[in-house]
Structure prediction request, 97 residues.
Amino acid sequence: MVDSFGVMYPDDVEIMHNSIRENLDNKIKFGFHAHNNIQMAFSNVIKFMEIADDDSYIDASLMGMGRGAGNVTMELLLGYLNKKRRIVIMTSNIWQS
Prediction:
């Protein structure tokens, strides 16, 4: 699910999610890619996480870097997951020699 123009609000996210879920086979997982044109990407992602399956996908980028206004900021998302969802963020060194 993509907010290509970054103009969705949380109620729009819920309507689109429900429409997709009603028409998509439950075996197929989907996620959300939020653009931040009107500074709603973080709020929209939180809404998506509240209503989506636990194994859904969320796209985010460091410092919100992306085309135009950018995407949801990973730093905000990780802080939210750590504090509100009590998810411990584990990192590993992927640049091993």
